[in-house]
Amino acid sequence: MKLIEFYADGYKNLEDISISPGEGINIIYGPNAQGKTNLMESIGLFSGRDKLRTGGDGRNIGFNKEVASVRIKFDDGRRDQVGEIVFARKNKFLLNRVPLGSINEFCGNFCTIAFSPSHLSIVQGEPRLRRKFIDDAISQMKPDYHKYCKQYDRVLLQRNSLLKSMNIGRADTLDVWNLQLARLGTIITIMRQDYVRKIENIVSDIYDGITIGKEKLKIYYQSTVFDEYLDNIYSEDKIQTYLKKLESAIETDISNGFTHNGVHRDDFILKIDDLNVREYGSQGQQRSCVIALKLAESNLLKLISKSEPIILLDDVMSELDVNRQNYILNHVKNNQVFITCCDISNTLNLKNGKIYYMLSGKIKSEISEKEC
Q1: pTM of the entire predicted model
Q2: Which parts of the chain fold into alpha helices (H)?
């Protein structure tokens, strides 16, 4: 996947930007609040996921503008394609000049992996944010997974609604919901644990490179139902284990009015040298962990889809030491990468790439790959 041409005008503060990015590293630098993040998120719009910081459609149109337009030409590995989004009184979404019903229909055509400071919540925040990260990642590789998650959420909502209105003597009325929840929860657990197994060595290797081998990162899936990792076979004995876990907590569930056990309460834990990163990691370590997760997601997606997603790293350099910055600038291979930063000194170690200076929503200058 390569972005060949990019054009934007009227998207938030972006004004008449037209660039032909390099195939490797592309740096966009400049002071705060000049449009760097807007540029990154306008690229990410075409992926339908991992949007960096998007609001409602009205908020996407800049001051004193009636229309916002973003257009890309990209190589998906097979052919060149053109995507266009027009925000106006009536929004338009076009792929190769063919109208799409919604922005979501770009999904699967243009693939990006994005990092922004808000993604630090994957490490710092509640378990639901880590579950969302892993669910989004799996959905991009296995579209059916999103369907299972939606079905599970609906059944969970029905079960919780029933719990709030019943007493312990009516517990048998939960049987239907318990079985549905067990079947869907087992599928989701198998797929999540399989993803963690596939990504754990990739994450560890990337983090090892970022820290030059000085720190070791491990990732663990923490299930509220199963004591051990499951194999990839969906079987009745696993469903029954899940079902018994639900049934064992029925009195507690009824008393409190919600379901205590299940994939909606699971988590994954990140540890550096056996210490929980959420509790003991520094800002730089936490940032490095999220970057490693994002890059590992990209690598795994590449192995499965045979196409390298475009990587968008917004404000990635702050709170990273020189060694960690050097890894990002010079050791992310094959992918096309876009990085924003405030200080050009952060790019001094860049060996090959393009650098753009941004001010007041415009690209003011460009340094070619040969000049870096």
Answers
A1: 0.82
A2: 36-44, 121-124, 127-141, 143-164, 175-210, 236-248, 250-256, 277-280, 283-305, 322-330
